[in-house]
Design a protein that fits this description.
The chain is of the alpha/beta class. It has 2 domains: 5-50 and 131-293, P-loop containing nucleotide triphosphate hydrolases (Rossmann fold); 63-122, Alpha-Beta Plaits (2-Layer Sandwich). Helix content is 36%, strand content 25%. It contains 10 helices and 11 strands. The chain has helices at residues 18-28, 45-49, 77-81, 106-110, 149-167, 182-188, 202-218, 233-246, 259-265, 276-293; strands at residues 5-10, 33-37, 52-67, 87-90, 93-96, 116-130, 136-142, 171-175, 193-198, 222-226, 250-253. The strands form 2 sheets. A 9-stranded mixed sheet has the order 3-6-7-2-8-1-9-10-11, sandwiched between helices. β10 (222-226), α8 and β11 (250-253) form a beta-alpha-beta unit. The protein starts with a strand and ends in a 9-residue tail after the last helix. It binds iron/sulfur cluster (2 copies). One iron/sulfur cluster binds next to α3. One iron/sulfur cluster binds at residues 65, 82, 84, 86-87, 96, 101-107.
Length: 302
């Protein structure tokens, strides 16, 4: 089977409608797309698609130190060198606060009794779920204070690719991490197409340009969706001009719609809201994307 294609929906900043657009695409393409929710700090696909989880695995994001109190002599060297204040001396033995430990391993290297070891720390969960739309989604949670969301994003995308191959999905719709930091880089590497969602504000334009430069570095084909395009004609025109400068197509201009909060409140995607014009524009966007990808509906695998 051909390698599944992946459309990653990204935005240079939060609040541009990235998740609204990606969830609408996943809804409209439910006959051929598996979903991957990589916005792990504010995961919204599970809210909109009522997932029934059928599998999960622990996610180990980083290492943390631990002390064998039987071997520890209580010399206190580890507490002296730890720059993160993660070591406390109690009852003549060292104890590590894993929430403060950064896993640098310095304490383990200098411990004269070799009483300290590092081991992976569980900081989240990766899940495979069945959606109300009949397709499959890979998603994940970070525990409170859990770090390394870039690594969690990479694991979600890896599983999404494996599952799409196994279940015969030709397409993956990924709700990418927001911003332009490590998690969004993890969301983009190896993707087939990057769909950038922006809004006609000064910060939207600025962040779009930074994001476009990042995507350019990956050599991934990309297109732009201007969300709430009718709210500021001048800034929308500036985005069109920027897109032309960058050589990127504007694939959709979505209007501001009061139906969006209503759809969200009803735990539905915006494609299911009561604004037929918006739904039709989103359908046009899926048609445009499918034209580029030439994908057939999913074929059930035996
Ligand atoms: S450096 Fe090693 S022996 Fe000394 S207090 Fe720390 S764990 Fe114990
Ligand atoms: S691994 Fe680094 S951060 Fe963690 S306790 Fe040891 S010295 Fe401190």
């Amino acid at each position: 089977m051909k390698r599944p294609e992946e459309i990653v929906v990204v935005s240079g900043k939060g609040g541009t409608g990235k998740t609204s657009v990606s969830a609408a695409l996943l809804y409209l393409l439910a006959d051929r797309a598996l979903g991957a929710d990589c916005d792990v700090d504010a995961s919204n696909f599970p809210i909109l698609f009522k997932p029934e989880r059928f599998w999960e695995e622990p996610f180990f994001g980083m290492e943390a130190a631990s002390v064998d109190t039987e071997t520890c002599t209580g010399c206190g060297r580890c507490a002296e060198v730890c720059r993160f204040g993660a070591v406390q001396m109690e009852h003549e033995s060292a104890h590590i606060d894993t929430a403060s430990c950064e896993g640098c391993g310095y304490c383990a290297r200098i411990c004269p009794a070799q009483a300290i070891s590092l081991s992976p720390l569980r900081t989240g969960t990766v899940k495979i779920s069945a959606l109300r739309t009949g397709n499959t989604m890979i998603h994940g949670d970070l525990e409170i204070g859990g770090e390394n969301s870039g690594k969690l994003v990479a694991r979600i995308r890896q599983l999404a690719m494996e599952k799409a191959r196994q279940e015969g999905y030709p397409l993956i719709i990924t709700d990418g991490a927001p911003g332009i930091g490590c998690p969004v880089v993890s969301s983009l590497s190896g993707a087939f197409f990057a769909l950038m969602v922006t809004e006609p504000t000064r910060s939207g334009i600025h962040d779009l340009e930074r994001l476009a430069r990042t995507i350019e570095g990956f050599g991934i084909p990309a297109g732009i969706v201007i969300n709430k395009a009718d709210l500021h004609d001048e800034n929308s025109a500036a985005i069109e001009a920027l897109a032309a400068d960058l050589g990127l197509p504007v694939l959709a201009r979505l209007p501001f719609s009061p139906s969006v909060p209503g759809a969200m409140k009803a735990l539905r995607t915006v494609a299911e809201g009561d604004n037929p014009e918006l739904t039709n524009l989103l359908r046009d966007l899926t048609a445009t994307l499918l034209d580029r990808l030439s994908l057939e509906p999913r074929k059930e695998t035996p």
